[in-house]
Every structure is written in structure tokens, then in C-alpha cells.
Design a protein that fits this description.
The protein is built from two helices and six strands, in the order βββαβββα. With 105 residues, the protein is α+β, with helices and mostly antiparallel strands.
């Protein structure tokens, strides 16, 4: 079964058009009093849920939007499609957004 993802701007597309951005972990830790251990836990420790989880996705071969979806990791199926109001504002940052935007694909 091929992975399909619904972009809130472009609609349902083949999964090859997208880049996985990681689990949705909530806001980044505050820089004030941030320890290396706290940052490491936030950046590298994942829940790896066998079931439904919120995830960041980047539409690299399309509109360039960052958005989150709920996906069942055991079936690779979206639980609900994001709405057009869901793309990330330009001042928000997904976990690996800078690296992925700069990376040559």
C-alpha cells in the first residue's frame, strides 16, 4: 500500500512528494536555563508510537508548506486530513525545518 498524504493546500498526493519532519512534540524548550540533557531529550528522543501520532510533514515537491497530520503508524493511513488553515505560519519552525529547507534533494 502506497503512502498518500493530504496537503492542506494541494490536496491528496503521493507520499514521495513529502519529507517527514518528525513527531509533533509541542513548543521547543525555553532557552533560559536550557541544559544539554533537556535539549537532547527534546531533539532526539521520540515516542515511536505504534498507533496514531501527530507528525510534521513538508511538501517538498509541491507548495513548500509545513503542516501536521494524525497518522496511524501501524497502517500508514491518515486519521484526518488537515484543513487549509493548518499550514504552518512562516515564523513557526518544525523540528528539522532549517536543515530540510537547505538540503539539496
Amino acid at each position: 500500500m502506497a503512502l498518500t498524504i493530504t496537503c492542506p493546500v494541494c490536496g491528496k498526493r503521493n507520499g514521495y512528494e513529502f519529507r517527514y519532519g518528525g513527531e509533533e512534540k509541542g513548543p521547543r524548550p525555553e532557552e533560559k536555563d536550557l541544559t544539554p540533557e533537556t535539549w537532547c531529550d527534546y531533539a532526539h528522543m521520540n515516542n515511536c508510537v505504534a498507533g496514531v501520532q501527530e507528525e510534521w510533514w513538508f511538501h517538498k515537491d509541491g507548495c513548500g508548506s509545513w503542516f501536521t497530520i494524525s497518522r496511524d503508524t501501524t497502517t500508514n493511513l491518515e486519521q484526518e486530513a488537515p484543513s487549509a488553515s493548518d499550514p504552518v505560519a512562516s515564523d513557526q519552525v518544525a523540528p528539522n525545518q532549517e536543515a530540510m529547507n537547505d538540503e539539496q534533494v
